[in-house]
Design goal:
By secondary structure, the protein is α+β, with helices and mostly antiparallel strands. It folds into 2 domains: 118 residues; 55 residues, no CATH class. Helices cover 41% and strands 22% of the residues. It has 5 helices and 9 strands; from the N terminus they run βαααββββββββαα. A hairpin with a 7-residue loop joins strand 8 and strand 9.
């Protein structure tokens, strides 16, 4: 699984512990809040950057991203989730098949003899027949979120750098919050 890791380095931990020595049990609270917000903000940044590459909705991109948080560690991972072609705006059925557009930079593509159907379960999707016979049919899907992240040069590095810069700022903000709370 592809991941962006957010961790606390020992030097930052010692500095925060020294600054917060007068406030009881403040260090875990500071780091938990800072990491949680950093992971949430990094996931939003990753969704925004992936959304700039493909035309799918942000809610569909979110289904392909997994967040993990703890007191001193957090990560954002990409799953092998592949959104169906109906999740991409502009997908429509014509008399020749189904037209769709995956990328913001590429043009439209066509699935000859493809069709949009609703299954008995209520699931709607774009389907195409496998062979000359009527059955079996297979659902057509777009690229996985993981593949978009790995194929776009510099995307993962930019998200990791932004998350690292945010973490230091959020730790300082949370230290200030603890001091304001304690001084009341």
């Amino acid at each position: 699984m592809l991941a962006i890791k957010v961790t606390i380095d020992p030097r930052s931990f010692k500095e925060a512990a020294h600054i917060l020595r007068a406030v009881p049990r403040a260090v875990p609270r500071v780091f938990r809040r800072a990491i949680s917000r950093t992971v949430d903000m990094a996931a939003t940044d990753l969704k925004r950057r992936v959304g700039a590459q493909i035309t799918v909705k942000k809610s569909e991109i979110a289904k392909g991203i997994r967040k993990t948080k703890s007191t001193y560690f957090g990560s954002i991972g990409a799953k092998e989730f592949r959104p169906g072609l109906l999740a991409f705006p502009g997908t429509k059925q014509t008399k020749h098949g189904v037209r769709y557009r995956l990328s913001r930079t590429a043009g439209r593509k066509m699935i000859e003899h493809g069709f949009i159907a609703t299954m008995q379960s209520g699931h709607r999707g774009v389907f195409a027949r496998g062979r000359e016979t009527r059955l079996p049919i297979g659902e057509k899907r777009g690229p996985s979120i993981w593949k978009v992240i790995t194929d776009t040069p510099g995307l993962l590095r930019a998200c990791t750098d932004a998350a690292g810069a945010r973490l230091g700022k959020l730790i300082n903000d949370q230290i200030g919050v603890e001091f304001r709370r304690w001084s009341r």
